[in-house]
Amino acid sequence: MPRLPVNLIIGAVLVSLVVGVAALSLVWTPHDHVAMNVRGRFQGPSDLYWLGTDQLGRDVVSQLMVAARNSMTVALVAVLIGGSIGVVLGLFASAVGGWVEDLVMRIADIGFAFPALLFAIMLSAVFGPSLTIAVAAIAFINIPVFARVSRASANQIWTREYVAAARAAGQGKLAISRDHILPNIAAPVIVQATIEFAVAILAEAALSYLGLGAQPPSPSWGRMLSEAQTLMFMAPQLAIYPGLCIVLAVLGFSLLGDGLRDITDPRLSRSRRA
Q1: Which of 58, 76, 244, 274 has the most other CB atoms within 10 Å of its CB?
Q2: DSSP string for 73-121
Q3: Residues 6+ apart with CB under 8 A from 169
Q4: Count of CB atoms within 10 A of residue 270's CB?
Q5: Other CB atoms closer than 10 Å to residue 3's CB: what's the count?
């Protein structure tokens, strides 16, 4: 049995930890994450409050757990929406080819010119800031990424013999894309989705930090950082805890995606060892 890459193992452990905490928050947290105890503000770690309390007397552990759930939900929905649309566009461009392919790719290039922050500001000006706006902004920036990956991978598959045989048998481009192209580009798409998951978590934290994501009282790692920045000299741990959570989550998904890429592309793995 081949040995798994170290980055894949470390990434899988970190991702399992973050996802497990997020899932656990659905059924249990040490305290109500919105319950305030003004008299118990800025408490240190104790048997009752494992990581202490914040400036409003809320339990930090409960806040971090629910924030993990919100961050995972936003990232998952955004990557699913952006990935689905992007893959469909990439498959369509590859199947049709010609000026249609060029047009789709140029539209994708335009999409790269609109970062999530700018798009979120535009949407917030119209609809107001919310998690839905964060999901829409992050999903939007994922579309051109997946379109490019799926189109490049599909172009390679279209030259294979079994695709030529399917065309000779009378299968249309839509049927070939569904039955032959899509299953064979699943690996690079999944790897890209894992990497984009890390980007989505970071983007959600940035949007929430600026007040464009999760709104009070719903906790978010980014908003927890924003609220803690004025308390750095009084209670620096309130910034350290959510910052560490963001680092672990992003690092975990990045390493997981990197490890999956090493497995699915042996040539890349050999070039790194060389």
Answers
A1: 58
A2: HHHHHHHHHHHHHHHHHHHHHHHH-HHHHHHHHHHHHHHHTS-HHHHHH
A3: none
A4: 10
A5: 6
Is the separation of the CB atoms in 94 and 159 below 8 Å? no
Residue ranges of domains in the chain, CATH in brackets = 6-25+59-266 (1.10.3720.10)
Tokens describing residue 25: 């928050």
What backbone torsions phi and psi does residue 59 show, to the nearest 5 degrees?
Answer: -70, 125
**Cα separation values, 33 from 67, 83, 219, 257, Å:** 10, 32, 8, 32
DSSP code, position 53: B
Q: Pull the structure tokens for residue 219.
A: 């906790």
Q: What is the pTM of this model?
A: 0.91
Q: Distance of CA 223 to CAs 19, 57, 73, 76, 262, Å?
A: 20, 16, 16, 19, 35
User: What does the block give as tokens for 19?
Assistant: 């996802």
Among 110, 111, 93, smallest CA distance to 102 is for: 93
Bridge partners, residue 59, by sequence: 53
Question: Cα torsion for 133, 15, 182, 157, to the nearest 10°?
Answer: 120
Residue 52 Cα distances to 64, 166, 191, angstroms: 12, 63, 38
Q: Decide: 74 and 136 in contact? Cβ < 8 Å.
A: no
